Amino acid sequence: MKPFRIHRGRVAPLDRINVDTDQVIPKQFLKRIEKTGFGQFLFYDWRFGTDGKPNGNFVLDQPRYAGASILVAGKNFGCGSSREHAVWALADFGFRAAISSSFADIFDNNSTKNGFLTVRLSESEVGELMRRAQEIAGYELTIDLEDCEVRDDRGFRAKFAIDDFVRHCLLNGLDDIGLTLQHEAEIVVYEKRHPAPAEWARG
User: Fold this and answer.
1) pLDDT tens-digit profile of 52-62?
2) Which of 72, 86, 169, 173 could form a disulfide with 24 if both were Cys (CB 3.0 to 4.6 A apart)?
3) Model pTM?
4) Domain tally for the chain?
């Protein structure tokens, strides 16, 4: 997966708490097995009417937030079902990271496995970022995973905590497969010593 080191991008504020994964990507769109193609359905029930036409009222559909790659959201973001598609939809839409005061555990773990960074800041810090994104046109943030810091050009600066192993994987673009392939040489040696069973043994 793509390494995450230092990212600067436009911020979109989602001033809602307890945003569940069924709102992030509704169940009727979970028919694909690929990780791509879900972005167009992100927050579908909030962005589109019953006739399938965009209502134009949702924050992500406002021109000032076009191309946003950092989402700032209320507490307990990603609660609800365990669908990994929620992270896929956010990433496919163009987001690289989300900032909140708290995330649901399963969503947080799914994010890590897909190179999507979740940043926890205090509620007051999240509130300040939300305010700036709403009031300042084209507001941008820099998320520095190397220094574990979020900052802007207007004096905001905040440190965030992250598990060392998770940080290592994100910095180096290592998902579970990537971690396994770090031991490819040992795997090859093992396979040579333990040849595949004969056809009759495989049934």
Assistant:
1) 898 888 999 99
2) 86
3) 0.88
4) 1
